[in-house]
Amino acid sequence: MTTLYVLDVPENTAVAKVAAEDPAVVVDKIGPYFEIRADGPIVIDRRATGCRHAVWYSCVGGVARDGRITQHDKDALRVEPV
Description:
Number of strands: 7
Number of helices: 3
Strand content: over 45%
Oligomer: single chain
CATH superfamily: Monooxygenase component MmoB/DmpM
CATH topology: Phenol Hydroxylase P2 Protein
Order of helices and strands: EHEEEHHEEE
Strand order of the largest sheet: 2-3-1-5
Distance between the termini: 9 Å
């Protein structure tokens, strides 16, 4: 399972919200993080989150060993299963 961790702070709430709009993605809380999980890839569109670039590039708190970030640019964050 592909898993992405995003720190649960007000600036990152939109990242979790947009991720949760994908029916293949599950968003839960684990400690101070949003845990974003999917059986396949996780793709979050930056423009849909409304995040400014500084927040966007600092939102990733970690990736589980079953996933790898394959895109993290001004357009999207993509985590693929390994």
